[in-house]
Every structure is written in C-alpha cells, then in structure tokens.
Amino acid sequence: MGLLSRKVTCNSHGQDSSYFLGWQEYEKNPYDEVKNPKGIIQMGLAENQLCFDLLESWLAKNPEAACFKRDGQSLFKELALFQDYHGLPAFKQALVDFMAEIRGNKVTFDTNNIVLTAGATSANETLMFCLAEKGEAFLLPTPYYPGFDRDLKWRTGAEIVPIVCTSSNGFQITESALEEAYQEAQRKNLRVKGLLVTNPSNPLGTTIKRNELDLLINFITVKEIHLISDEIYSGTVFSSPEFISIMEVLKDRKMDKSQEWERVHVVYSLSKDLGLPGFRVGAIYSNDPIVVAAATKMSSFGLVSSQTQFLLSAMLSDKKFTKEYLSKNHKRLRKRRSKLVSGLEKTGISCLDSNAGLFCWVDMRHLLSSDTFEAEMELWKRIVYDVKLNISPGSSCHCTEPGWFHVCFANMSEETLKLAMQRLKSFVASITINKQSHQELMNTRRKNRTNWVFRLSFQSFHDREQDER
Amino acid sequence: MAIEIEKPSVGLSKVAVSDTHGEDSPYFAGWKAYDENPYNESSNPSGVIQMGLAENQVSFDLLEKYLEEHSEASSWGKGAPGFRENALFQDYHGLKSFRQAMANFMGQIRGGRAKFDPDRIVLTAGATAANELLTFILADPGDALLVPTPYYPGFDRDLRWRTGVKIVPIHCDSSNNFQVTPEAMETAYQCAESMNLKVRGILITNPSNPLGATIQRSVLEQILDFAVNKNIHLVSDEIYSGSTFSSSEFISIAEILENRSYRDSERVHIVYSLSKDLGLPGFRVGTIYSYNDKVVCTARRMSSFTLISSQTQHLLACMLSNKEFSENYIKTNRERLTKRYDMIIKGLKNAGIECLKGNAGLFCWMNLSPLLEEPTRESELELWKTILNEVRLNISPGSSCHCSGPGWFRVCFANISEQTLEIALERIHKFMEQRRRN
C-alpha cells in the first residue's frame, strides 16, 4: 500500500540507534542468576529498584488505596468515571507537596499550575507541542538522554540543536557553548524557542550548579526564549552539592514576577524517584496560564489512570512515608553508586564525579584503540557481545568525545553488580597489554592495534560460533 | 468552520493557541451550565440533569462484585508479590495477558464471528489517544480524513488539533436514516480534491455516535469498497460495540474482512476502548487493532506517549480473562441498556417526540425539528438554550455533531439512574404540553 505518513518512514523515533540495539541483544540473551548466569547483564536501564521493599511495606499497611477504598468506603464508581483532565485534586496536592519536599521546601508549587500526563515522555512531548513547531528548535546540552530525539522531535516536527559540553570542565554548560549552539541554529535557519536541560542530568548523574543555572536564566532572558527543566531525577540526589531547582534560583533572584517566570517550565515524574515507570505518572509545571491551559487539554491524549492517581495520592499524602522513603532512597543510591565506582576503579576505570541519578558517566577513553567513534562502537560491541554487559555508548547520548559510557547501577541486585564488575575486570585485563605510560601506549597502539583487534575478533567469532550451535 | 489562529502569544506554538481543540463549542458550554447547577435527587432536585455525557453507569454492580471477589486483581495478591514486576513494566508491547484478554473480549462481543490476534493489539491511554495516534500515522499535516456526519464532537480535536490533518464531512441526512451512501462518499472525496486536500482515509464510528445505531452490512461493504477504490485507509471506531442491544445486529468491519478472506485488510484499522462498554473512562484503556504490520509497529512505538498504567492493565487482564465474568457482563449490560433505551423511547413518544430507530450505544438521536421556529442552525441553538435553561436538561445539539439538518439532539440515558431518567422524561412531557397549549 505504501500510504503511510512521513512520520512512519522517518527515523526520528530513533529506534534504530545503538541505544535500542543493545536492548535487543539483551532481550535475546538476558542474564538470570539461576536460569542464565552467562547472559547479558542489563546496565542500560535507568530504573530504580532499590526501594521496592518500602513501597511493598506501605501497600501491606495500607491495603485500601489499591482497592479503591478510603475509610472503608468504596470509591470505585467515582474513580472509574473520573476522566477530568484537571486531575484528581487530592493527587495533585500530594504530588506538589512531594515535589516541594524533595526541594527541601525551599519552593512550593501551586496545583493550578500542574498538568498530569502519562509519564515524563508524554510531558516533554506535550510541552514541545505547546512551545515549538516545524522550523523551530530547542537547544539541549550534550550528552543527553537518547529518548529526547523521539520525544521532542518525532511528532512535533521541532528540532534539537546541541549545546556542546566537554570533559574539559566536567561537562558543565558554558556561556560560549550556549552562544555557539544558538548561532548553529541560526545557520540552520531554525528559530530557537528555548532550552531544555535535565537536572539532575541524565546521563551525567550530576546536579547543575547554581552558576550554570544563573547562566541559563540570563541566556533565556536575553534571547527571550523558554527554559524547560526536566527534574525527574530530583529525588535521587544522594550527596552534595544539594539539588537546586530552577524555580529556587528564580525565587532567589526575585524573578517571580518577571517575564522569564512564565517562560520556565518544569517536568516531573514518579518513574525514577519512586521506581514506578509502569504506572505512567508524569507532570508539567508551568507558571504560564496559557501553557497550563493548552497542556491540560492536550493531556487528554495521555491521562494518568484514575486508579493509579488514587493509589498514589494516598501514598504521597503519607508524609511519614515520603520522608522515610526519600531518606532511605538517597542512602541506598549513594551506597550502590560507590560500589560501582570502586568496582570500576579496581579495573582502572574512572567515572565523572556524580551526586545523583541511577547511573554513572564512565570514562573508558583509555580503552579505545583510537580517539574515534568507530573505536567507541568497537569497544561497545565487545562489551555487549563478549563481556555481556549492556551499557550505553556516549555517542547514543550525542556526546562529542568518544569513549564515555552510561552505566546504570540501580536496576539490579548487589550480587549482579559485583558479577558485572568482575566480568569487566577480566575483560580489561585481557586487553591491557602492560603497564606502559599512556604516551607510549599511544605510540605503540598503531603497531599493536591489528593484533589486538584480531585477537578480539577471533575470540568473539569463536564464542559466537559456540552460542549458535 | 473556519479556524481563526490568533497571532501567537510570545513564544507559544500555533497549536497551543489555536482553538482547534474545539472546547468553545456548545457541546462544552452545556457542561459548564450543568457544573454550575447540577441535579441532585435530594439536595438540588430542580438542577440541570446531565444528558450530554455518554457514560455507562448501568453495570457498575457487576464490576464491583468482581473486585470484591478477586482482590488479587487490585492488590497484586497478599504481600504484593507481583507488585515489583508490575510497577517496572513499561514495555510498549503491553502486558501479554492483558492483550490476550482484550483480544478475547473483542471476539466475545462480536459473538465469536471475528477473531483477534493479541499481537496486533496496540494499547493506548483511551480511544482519544488511539484516534489521534492513528491519524498521525495515516496522514500528514494538511491531508484529509473523510468522516460521516453527524459525528462525535471530540473528533475535531482528536483528529485535527495536533496532527494538522483536516476533516472533510460525508454528509448524511434523515432522508435515509443518516446512512452513508456511495454518492455521499464520492461527493466528499471530490470536495476534498477541489480544496487540494489529499484524502488519506475514511473514519467511521460503528455503532454510531451520536446516532445510536449500527451500520448495516451492505453499507459497510460499500464503505470498504470505496476505500479500496480510492486506495485509502478505513478506520472503524467500534468503542460502542459492546453496547449493542442485540449481539447479532452489530457487524464489525472485522467480519466483513473475514468474509473477504482478509483481502484488502492492510488498509483497515479498528479502534476500541473500555470506556463505554465497561464504564471505565477514568482508567484510560484504548486499543488500536490493525491488519497492517507497519501500522502496528509504528503505533506501538508511538504509544510510548500514551501507555496504559501497568497497574490498570493488571487489573483488567484479571477481570477480562475471567470468562464467567466477561460473558455475564456482556449479556447483562446489553439487557440493561436495552431496557433503558426502551424506557426513554416510550417516554419521548408519550411526549410526542420521535427518535431515530436505534439499536446500540448510550444515547438516542431525538428529532425536535418540528419544534424549530425556522429550519436553521440558529433556531436549533435557541431551542437548545431553552431546553437547558427552562427544562433544565443538558442535551447535545446536532450542530455540535456537524449534523447538516437542524433540529436533532443526542440524549444520553445510561449515565443517570432510572429515577432521574423518569424525572427528565416528566420535564420533557410538561415542556411539550406547554408548547402545544401556546
């Protein structure tokens, strides 16, 4: 027939990228402690599995909420019929209170300014529909979450222009990088409508510093554009520096009556902080009533199930629970991260110093055969197919420097993480020739590369043959 | 209806400020009036009775009974062993058990005359999302979909707003009970061509909203033939399929395809939802069933923007896999809706009001054209306002459904109790009597 829209044939859904190919490999051969101990360990999934016991214990103590009951009364009918896109008032209140709690109550949120959506995926796309269209672009600091290519561009027709951040300063956003990105958009004939930052950052795992946030605000003021702050990892900040929300900075700068106030929008979700990606709970927070009104109507295309709103309104209204949850969540993430970091250190691999998130930004530049993305791909394929770890290559996050990898630590057990580190250690040992200095290594690399590549290719070819039999 | 796009306020997209969301129409104005003065049997007996909301409230007891007897469906069992896995499940393929249950349920509704493959089911947060998603996939901005009138007012938003796709109406009228004809389809197609619009598909609702009637077999064949001839898609929105008063009267496009050995099926897509048949609009459960592999694949990827809560998928997988429950539900729901329908038709007849002969849905299509001052849209809106303010009933004027002949109104009967329906019918009776006297 061939009569489908251009959206079907275009690539903006991004699902042919390596990010997704790694997933496919994993799905064919997933690790299981008992059933498939030689399988691929999933380290490309930013899930938070560390605090389910807390959720389960709350559910056991509060069985009514999942059964549509409150104080012995069944609210099933009301909930089943409730499809108001303004959202369940009790849930919105509980959600804004939770968001405030995460920010140490330094900022508060108004339920009239919040729009519920089926996940942050939906929130980001909806905001983009409200703020940009074909011929327009949003600037995003690299590296960024691969899903943004689909979420922000696919159906909206908008474009992304990268704000290039580098390891020279820990991938922080600079004024020159912002300006350069803006110029690049102009060169491409794209009208810049705004910036989108993820804070804490995915994939870096770092919170954005106050001076960077100030920079962003200054930039959007001068250019008269929007700023979207995707703060879905705000509840995963486990060590200093503290998380500073863009809203806090605006407040501190007494900008709450300014024009910029209405051009700053926050995206939130319970998928990462609470580990509930299946429940599809996202939110857009905006101080612009027109954006709130438009986004609210658009949320018709992705409302949160009333059943889920009800359950979570009970859970998040339990302040004793939220306090304990946030505190334990931080503790466990901090501990787990340090296990990953020390495991990597033992293998001579370092990470970007991070204080948040469910992943680390790992530096494997020294393991590359050359300072190229081809070499990064080679290394990545070795790690997926031979070491059997699914991690995400920096290129899938649009990183401009080859050799960085996104490695998740909160979606598996401690034992599995340990095993992953062991596998990695063995692998690195087998490719590290000897303790030559880095410069010597670079010089001899060209000589040794053929042997190294050949040895690995031969090994993996051999292994694969075994698997296919 | 021309859409005026104001000069965009600083920095917002045209989509954000356009009124293509359609929420300024009378369809929504009636809602506002109701919200301000809602009827309540005890506390506000003279308030506005809501008859503009196509909700199914007649079978909740069946659902509640199931939930009481199967707590594992809502609470993941004792100690919540399945909670973790469920909470993490965000796979856009959807819960296999739920897709299986939906496929079976859809088959049961069609009396087993059509079978559905769970792997062709794509889950979306409601039929609203399903219709928009399909439009994104089947058409490009500026293209057109043909939709028979009268149609569900929400389509103006769902099919056009963010997609940039246009609706070209296939005009149907009372001369033949508003059935679609090949001539009407051809006229609409030519109309689109004359406006330089590329027609990508035809979207039908079967059973029809607002008509409350199923599409006849011969008409379905004609519609499919038309789609084949023009090489366009056919979307069949069958969200009221479980609300037909008699199982045998509803013929799904799936049956037509099966009879043709699935020839030409790659252009056919069915939309379904549990909002009407099961009365669960709050749970956001919609599906796209497509016979086209590429559409299924793309729709699945796009469903990332509108996934169904896994908590809800789990609940409904349990409920709908229970054959005893589903069979009893379908049968009982049908019986109760039929009873309601008979009651309202009789009551309206006693008041001297005729309706289109209906056999499905949660509403009837009432003919008040004899009451119009003039056979015009303005007259219809005057009458609508009178009914809203004097009779204090919120019903939907045909013009909000793009009906070409003025004087028709959609009246919902399944979202209120029998007692309230009695009161509404009494009020209508009184109103008609007064008019006769004057």
Automatic annotation (TrEMBL), chain A:
GO biological process: ethylene biosynthetic process; fruit ripening
Catalytic activity: S-adenosyl-L-methionine = 1-aminocyclopropane-1-carboxylate + S-methyl-5'-thioadenosine + H(+)
This protein's UniProt keywords: Ethylene biosynthesis, Fruit ripening, Lyase, Pyridoxal phosphate, S-adenosyl-L-methionine
Top EC class for this record: lyase
PROSITE patterns membership: AA_TRANSFER_CLASS_1
UniProt domain Aminotransferase class I/classII large: residue ranges: 41-424
UniProt GO molecular function: 1-aminocyclopropane-1-carboxylate synthase activity; pyridoxal phosphate binding; transaminase activity
Cofactor(s) this protein cannot do without: pyridoxal 5'-phosphate
InterPro entries in UniProt: Aminotransferase_I/II_large (IPR004839), Ethylene_sulfur-biosynth (IPR050478), NHTrfase_class1_PyrdxlP-BS (IPR004838), PyrdxlP-dep_Trfase (IPR015424), PyrdxlP-dep_Trfase_major (IPR015421), PyrdxlP-dep_Trfase_small (IPR015422)
Superkingdom of origin organism: Eukaryota
Pathway(s) per entry: Alkene biosynthesis; ethylene biosynthesis via S-adenosyl-L-methionine; ethylene from S-adenosyl-L-methionine: step 1/2
Pfam families, per database record: Aminotran_1_2 (PF00155)
EC number: 4.4.1.14
Family to which the UniProt record says this protein belongs: Belongs to the class-I pyridoxal-phosphate-dependent aminotransferase family.
Function: 1-aminocyclopropane-1-carboxylate synthase (ACS) enzymes catalyze the conversion of S-adenosyl-L-methionine (SAM) into 1-aminocyclopropane-1-carboxylate (ACC), a direct precursor of ethylene.
Protein name as it appears in the record: 1-aminocyclopropane-1-carboxylate synthase
Organism annotation: Hibiscus syriacus (Rose of Sharon)
Automatic annotation (TrEMBL), chain B:
UniProt xrefs under SUPFAM superfamilies: PLP-dependent transferases (SSF53383)
Keywords: Pyridoxal phosphate
PROSITE patterns reported for this sequence: AA_TRANSFER_CLASS_1
Record-linked CDD domains: AAT_like
Annotated InterPro entries: Aminotransferase_I/II_large (IPR004839), Ethylene_sulfur-biosynth (IPR050478), NHTrfase_class1_PyrdxlP-BS (IPR004838), PyrdxlP-dep_Trfase (IPR015424), PyrdxlP-dep_Trfase_major (IPR015421), PyrdxlP-dep_Trfase_small (IPR015422)
One Pfam family in the UniProt entry: Aminotran_1_2
GO molecular function: 1-aminocyclopropane-1-carboxylate synthase activity; pyridoxal phosphate binding; transaminase activity
Residue span, Aminotransferase class I/classII large domain: 49-428
Coiled coil location: none
Keyword set includes Zinc-finger: no
Domain of life: Eukaryota
Family: Belongs to the class-I pyridoxal-phosphate-dependent aminotransferase family.
Name of the featured protein: 1-aminocyclopropane-1-carboxylate synthase 7
